[in-house]
Amino acid sequence: MSHLDADHPIIDRPWEYRIQRLVVETNPDNQLNDVAELVLQRGVSIRRLRFEGVRSLAIEEGGLQSASLRILDVSSRQLDRLNVWVTDFEPQPGISFWARKVTDLDRP
Questions:
Q1: Are strands 6-7 and 101-104 parallel, antiparallel or unpaired?
Q2: 8/14 Cα distance (integer angstroms)
């Protein structure tokens, strides 16, 4: 993780949420259309985030129970169509992937 990578403003303090559900839709004809929906829960608050253009999805054993989730804005890196990085900041099982964009399905 680079010092230039800022927390994405889509959700504040994502590491305080637990991953309730992850749904991935793949498009065998065009990986740029792969989608992941991540449902996060903190107490009674539930947030649904939709990531488009998902690449390099990795889930380590036990990774969906992670308590160190980060969603970073990596647009300053000028990577080919990748602007969001979902990762963990602690060396424990976690989830990670890159995406073109993220949308909050619960907030306009």
A1: unpaired
A2: 10
C-beta pairs of 82-86 under 8 Å, 24+ apart in sequence? 82/53, 82/55, 84/8, 84/51, 85/1, 85/5, 86/38, 86/51
**pLDDT tens track for 11-24:** 999 999 999 999 99
Cα–Cα distance for residue pair 42/60, rounded to 1 Å: 22
Tokens describing residue 60: 């380590």
User: 0.70 exceeded by the pTM?
Assistant: yes
C-alpha 48 chain-centroid distance:
11
